[in-house]
């Protein structure tokens, strides 16, 4: 983050002598650079530039947003502070991505300076031939503009929205029902592998990959659905027959990672079998489909079916709803799609203004999946996103045992239960072994609150607030 400070000396005794033929621009930007402060010649006698300085803070992400403020104090000086999410003195790469609004003006009571809202005019900031508003100018011609002494005017321009990515084709928003089983096992679709990327660090137990598949726009889906994958080869249990279909939750929005509606992404953990006696890997018992996917190369062909599933669809009837998402490992896949739709993509028909709360349980820090994306949402949308992780091999729960996702939920149980009482949706995705521990924790918390868990669970299901997809 960069803080740009301008200081001016104002001599109000000369102010009345200054011709008022045109507005005075306090600061201006143009074509990717911060220009020297500009003044009409007739105003220079009253205002003088004293300080221009930059302060850099060590944020990782150069697109990390923040509000920027302008504070004007007179006399004896005018101080303007502009806070922008830049990591260097080169302003052009990032400013073109920012939009600002929500102008507010506060005039403290009891001072002698009268400077009301109409004395300000909004101009535009121009970066790389793109205009963004507002730049504030003082208009000395405004009849309620008078400079005397001892008054403070504070004006704040808050960043209204983090830049989002345009998506297409927007016709994907037109359907009123989700696409279901467009391709079946006997008539699968031949898609193409675009990329295979390892997601986890070297200390993660096992390997998890992010796999992008090109379906050419022919296998559309909604967030929360799954694709079926048929690995190549023969089913060992049914000689001459193909392998059975394996289902994988889709880890992207309907527009895919390239925002063009032609790809889908899968989050796949390679299934490797180790002999319990020798401790050595036995390739003959490794997961057929997961290893096929993780070993794939760009250009390889893949047989897919689907899309399938309705239980994990993201309800969009209320854009201000609360969504509590609980995942272990690759169960985070559908939530990545939800969150990209909420916070990354510019979808005209869906403007999320609610709360998304993600609980993710993995073994250790190196096992975190899509952590950079989630961390960025947390910084960009602190009022709309919460992100809590449970690292079973690095953290301890309140009893000194390993920290599992249900332990992390218990830490916030009061908040979680209140949100559910107010209509929040709660989702569970991951290995089926996660559910007994979670249900046990929720039941214990309910009893501590004097509630009957079975009745509460029944009500959540009846209200369609309870969504579970485990495997």
Key terms:
disordered N terminus; 471 residues; Flavoprot_Pyr_Nucl_cyt_Rdtase; chloroplast; EC 1.18.1.2; 17% helix; FAD-bd_FR_type; alpha+beta; transit peptide; 6-stranded antiparallel beta sheet; 5-stranded parallel beta sheet; 34% strand
How is this structure best described in words?
The structure is a single chain. This protein is an alpha+beta fold. The chain has helices at residues 12-15, 92-95, 288-295, 333-343, 371-380, 405-411, 413-421, 434-448, 453-462; strands spanning 2-10, 24-25, 29-30, 33-34, 47-56, 68-74, 77-84, 99-106, 114-115, 120-127, 130-138, 145-146, 151-161, 165-166, 189-198, 208-214, 226-230, 246-249, 263-269, 301-308, 322-328, 345-346, 355-362, 385-391, 425-430, 466-470. Helix 6 runs parallel beside helix 8 (434-448). The two termini are 43 Å apart. Mean pLDDT is 75; it is low at 1-160. Its cofactor is FAD. It holds the Pfam family NAD_binding_1. One of its GO terms (cellular component) is chloroplast.
Per-chain topology:
Layout: E1 2-10, H1 12-15, E2 24-25, E3 29-30, E4 33-34, E5 47-56, E6 68-74, E7 77-84, H2 92-95, E8 99-106, E9 114-115, E10 120-127, E11 130-138, E12 145-146, E13 151-161, E14 165-166, E15 189-198, E16 208-214, E17 226-230, E18 246-249, E19 263-269, H3 288-295, E20 301-308, E21 322-328, H4 333-343, E22 345-346, E23 355-362, H5 371-380, E24 385-391, H6 405-411, H7 413-421, E25 425-430, H8 434-448, H9 453-462, E26 466-470
Parallel strand pairs: 14-22, 21-23, 21-25, 23-24, 25-26
Antiparallel strand pairs: 1-5, 1-7, 2-11, 3-4, 6-13, 8-13, 9-12, 10-11, 15-16, 15-20, 16-19, 17-18, 17-20
Helix pairs in contact: 6-8
């Amino acid at each position: 983050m960069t803080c740009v400070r301008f200081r001016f000396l104002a001599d109000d005794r000369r102010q009345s002598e200054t011709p008022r033929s045109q507005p005075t621009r306090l600061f201006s930007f143009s074509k990717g650079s911060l220009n020297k402060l500009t003044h009409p010649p007739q105003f220079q006698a009253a205002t003088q530039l004293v300080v221009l300085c930059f302060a850099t803070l060590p944020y990782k992400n150069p697109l990390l947003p923040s509000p920027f403020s302008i504070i004007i104090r007179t006399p004896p000086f005018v101080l303007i502070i502009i806070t922008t999410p830049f990591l260097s003195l080169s302003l052009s790469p990032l400013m073109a991505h920012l939009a600002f609004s929500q102008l507010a003006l506060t005039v403290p009571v009891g001072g002698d300076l009268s400077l009301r809202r109409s004395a300000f005019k909004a101009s535009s900031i121009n970066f790389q031939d793109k205009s963004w508003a507002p730049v504030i100018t003082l208009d000395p011609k405004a009849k309620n503009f008078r400079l005397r002494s001892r008054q403070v005017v504070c004006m704040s321009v808050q960043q209204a929205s983090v830049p989002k990515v345009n998506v297409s084709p927007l016709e994907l928003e037109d359907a009123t029902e989700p696409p279901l089983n467009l391709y079946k096992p006997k008539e699968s679709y031949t898609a193409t592998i675009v990329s295979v990327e390892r997601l986890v660090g070297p200390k993660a137990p096992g390997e998890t990959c992010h796999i992008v598949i090109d379906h050419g726009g022919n296998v559309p889906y909604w967030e929360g659905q799954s694709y079926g994958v048929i690995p190549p080869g023969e089913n060992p249990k049914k000689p001459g027959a193909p392998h059975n279909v394996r289902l994988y939750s889709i880890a992207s929005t309907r527009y895919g990672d390239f925002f063009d509606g032609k790809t889908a992404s899968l989050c796949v953990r390679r299934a490797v079998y180790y002999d319990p006696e020798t401790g050595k890997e036995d390739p003959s018992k490794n997961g057929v489909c997961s290893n096929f996917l993780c070993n794939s190369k760009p250009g390889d062909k893949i047989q897919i079916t689907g899309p399938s599933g309705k239980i994990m669809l993201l309800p969009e009837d209320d854009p201000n709803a609360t969504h509590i998402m609980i995942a272990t490992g690759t169960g985070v896949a559908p939530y990545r799609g939800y969150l990209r739709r909420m916070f990354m993509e510019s979808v005209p028909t869906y403007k999320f203004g609610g709360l998304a709360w993600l609980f993710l349980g993995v073994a250790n820090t190196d096992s975190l999946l899509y952590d950079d994306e989630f961390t960025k949402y947390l910084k960009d949308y602190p009022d709309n996103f919460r992100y809590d992780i449970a690292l079973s091999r690095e953290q301890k729960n309140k009893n000194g045992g390993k920290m599992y996702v249900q332990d992390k939920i218990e830490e916030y149980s009061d908040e979680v239960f209140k949100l559910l009482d107010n209509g929040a949706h709660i989702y569970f995705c991951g290995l089926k072994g996660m559910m007994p521990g979670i249900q046990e924790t929720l039941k214990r918390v309910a009893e501590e609150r004097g509630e009957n868990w079975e009745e509460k669970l029944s009500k959540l299901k009846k209200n369609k607030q309870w969504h579970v997809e485990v495997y």
